[in-house]
Input
Amino acid sequence: MPSQDSRQHYLRNTIAGFTTLPVPQSFLDNRPLIKTEGDEETPPTFYTAEDSLTFFDAMKLYRPHSVGFYDESGDKPKLLTTLDKVDTPEDIPEEATHVFYGLHDWTADETADAVRQADALGVPVSQVLFPWGLAVQEYLQNGVA
Output
């Protein structure tokens, strides 16, 4: 049976990166996040890159239940909790080493931004960006080699 799930790529990040790196404009262009609600007289305003939302903040607004915090210190990643159960970065379990989450309707601009961020951090893109399918299953079963 075909899946209706539009997640095409998963991102893996360190806790430090997830809580400090700002989301690029491409993320916000593809996933408009409301900054202030509108009314009959005023349209809503949306976050932009100038707001410097971290991935933590953006995913908290977007799909917090889909973000998993993992401990990768063992043989395979161990899911500790999800972002919907965490209020602030300080509430992330201490043993969490990485976050892993899927993004829906991924764009080419987002891919380019993910590659640039990985390059800037000196991390191989293959350890940051996982195409949906076997790569995701391999990570969940065996972690990153």
